[in-house]
Specification:
CATH topology of the largest domain: Elongation Factor Tu (Ef-tu), domain 3
Radius of gyration: 19 Å
Strand order of the largest sheet: 3-4-5-2-1-6
Helix content: under 10%
Length: 169
């Protein structure tokens, strides 16, 4: 029997990097600014129904140490290596500033030129180390990257579902 329940959009906030010690603790690589957002019940996939109950402990350089409900030894913790940790989008804190947005919210927005012409759709937001890039799929042709700077993206309107872009020649 199939169910028709809807699954809210989820945001990946981290990944279990490895086990730590012999008591079932894990090292978490956090993607967000607030590692405490990973405290509590988290999804283990973007659309599945499995969860883990995390208890964040303390920072360990680029990782955070965490305990997981029901995991008490290294062998069990090691099995979770590579598990991504997802939170419902609705659980993220509300944004306070008008020009603030979550990067995830840019995906799917229409890219428009200064004169309003369709320049494509944002299909990904990446950062390979030299700054944030928008990957745009144009109406025709191959997707391309555009640096996400004020010069190249002078305005973002989440409500309207658009970004204005100034693409290099």
């Amino acid at each position: 029997m199939q169910t028709t329940e809807t699954i809210e959009k989820r945001i990946c906030l981290g990944v279990i990097a490895t086990a730590h010690g012999v008591k079932g603790l894990v090292k978490i690589h956090c993607y967000g600014d607030d590692p405490q957002m990973l405290n509590g019940l988290l999804w283990t996939s973007e659309t599945g129904h499995d969860t883990l109950d995390l208890r964040m402990k303390n920072s360990m350089g680029k990782y955070w140490l965490a305990g997981i409900e029901g995991i008490s030894d290294r062998t069990e913790a090691e099995k979770l290596r590579g598990t991504k940790l997802w939170l419902d989008r609705a659980a993220l804190p509300a944004l306070e500033e008008e020009d603030e947005f979550y990067v995830e919210d840019l995906i799917g927005l229409k890219a428009l030129t200064k004169d309003g012409a369709d320049a494509g759709t944002i299909i990904a937001v990446d950062n390979f180390g030299a700054g944030t890039l928008l990957e745009i799929r144009p109406p025709a042709g191959t997707p391309y990257y555009l640096p996400f700077t004020k010069k190249n993206v002078p305005s973002v309107d989440i409500t309207e579902g658009t970004v204005q872009i100034v693409a290099p020649e």
